[in-house]
Amino acid sequence: MKSPAIKLLRKHLKEKAFYQWVFITYKSVKDFIFFCIRYLEWKLYAYNIKSSKDLCFPNFMIIGLPRCGTTWFMNNLYHHPNIHLPLTEPEYFTSHLDRSLRSYSNIIKRGTGIIRGTKSPFYCTLPVYKIRWIKEMMPDLKIILILRNPIDRTWSYAKWIITKVKGKNIEKIGEQVMFDFFKKDKKRFNYLNILKNYSSVFSSNQFKIIIFDEIKSRPKSLLRETFNFLGESGQKDWNRHPYYKKINPGIDKPIPSHYAQFLRKLYSQELLLLKKRLGSRVASWLSTA
């Protein structure tokens, strides 16, 4: 007679969710192991056991969120003569800790800019222990976080992932599949948690929050503020900067009413808390809730 435990195990082995759980657990454990290795490597540099000569880390990071104008910002900062950042997204601290700190440094130090940065829109999801490690390595680092109405951002991100990444027709995706996607997306990109995690580690003069709507309403003055934030307040040749262009535009498909209704309900409480946290800058978001 088979024990209940064996029956339960066999049942789980037949379920797709079980393998997803195993994969996620394996990935999390693997990532933490590589984090420990990289942290020990950093300590060897910090205590001069290994030579830190020519080791180069960024002066600023654009940490997200996806579909919030991070590519627009990257391109406009890239065209400043005193700012350098790679046009690729290293995602080192999210996906590539199996590589040495020296390899990360080599990506950052390419180019001639006085101020160096990176854009990695998934850094907003980093756990606090990684954020603290980044601050330990780069105590003067400046953080740029771009926020967009979460209802609009979630729909834009869903269209992008399903249509461009997975190559599927979003109109043929089942309603429940979309609802599950929205809920997972909200959990992964929780604005309040992101703000809490980064503001608990970086001081207010190191942490700049930008609202997506400002990119459309005042792109030039927003860039000027950002240059000043990064310590680059000299004369600007605005002909160099594509601030008037749409860069990496989304897919032009309005949100269906039943999805809009679901997202309004999903984000209703969070929007109120964001209004309390960020004030009038996000007041217009409440009109969609």
TrEMBL record:
Residue ranges constituting the Sulfotransferase domain according to the UniProt record: 59-233
Pfam family, one: Sulfotransfer_1
Gene3D superfamilies the UniProt entry points to: P-loop containing nucleotide triphosphate hydrolases
GO molecular function: sulfotransferase activity
Keywords tagged on the record: Glycoprotein, Transferase
Superkingdom, natural source: Bacteria
Name this protein carries in UniProt: Sulfotransferase domain-containing protein
